[in-house]
Amino acid sequence: DRQVHEVQSYMGRLETSDKESVHLVENEIQARIDNIFSNLERLEILSSKEPPNKRQNAKLRVDQLKYDVQHLQTALRNFQHRRYLREQQERQREELLARTFTTNDSDTTIPIDETLQFNESLQSAHRGMDELIGSGTNILQGLRDQRVTLKGTHKKILDVANMLGLSNTVMRLIEKRAFQDKFLMLGGMALTCLIMFLVVQYLT
């Protein structure tokens, strides 16, 4: 517990440390964390040798310490990551301010070719999406036409069956088949809409 509190106190110094000393503080914290982890490994071995009535409490205490140290390790890494981003932004800002711009400076020319290529890629993607949506619309229209055709066919079959005096059993079989065809058609329409939605989501 004492070592954990010491690391926590060092963590409080990070935000107030200057650029020259922050690395030293980070190294000191990391060294203390590594030392605590090493001690915890020995404590785990010792806790496993405790009497059964004390073993559970010893293990819980070791697990709690391990959790606290892991939390400190995560906090240190997050601070280092934020510091790295902050220093990178400062370097980029200093480089931008230090750069002298001239009309013939080749280093300051805008990468027009890359911009045009990017715009062309976007336009190609948009054209592909438009073509895909158009194809999907044609498919849906075809399915609607098939539905109308199936309805007409169904009616004609019923008319012919009535004219031929077919039995009620045959009539029910025909109606059942037409009912199944209707669900197949609806399922195909739903599957086509789902594929179109997934493709659009992926492309965007």
Automatic annotation (TrEMBL):
Provide an example Pfam family for this protein.
V-SNARE_C
Which GO terms fall under molecular function for this chain's record? Answer: SNAP receptor activity; SNARE binding
The record's CDD domains line, in alphabetical order, gives:
SNARE_GS27
Q: Looking at the UniProt record for this protein, which Gene Ontology cellular component terms does it annotate, in alphabetical order? A: endoplasmic reticulum membrane; ER to Golgi transport vesicle membrane; Golgi apparatus; late endosome membrane; SNARE complex
Recorded topology in the membrane: Single-pass type IV membrane protein
Tell me which InterPro entries the record gives.
Answer: GOSR2/Membrin/Bos1 (IPR027027)
Q: Name one GO biological process term.
A: protein transport
| TM spans (from-to) | 183-203
Annotated compartments? Endoplasmic reticulum membrane; Golgi apparatus, cis-Golgi network membrane
The job of this chain, per UniProt, is described as:
Involved in transport of proteins from the cis/medial-Golgi to the trans-Golgi network.
Concerning its family, UniProt says: Belongs to the GOSR2 family.
Know the name of this protein? Golgi SNAP receptor complex member 2
Classification from the root reads:
Eukaryota, Metazoa, Chordata, Craniata, Vertebrata
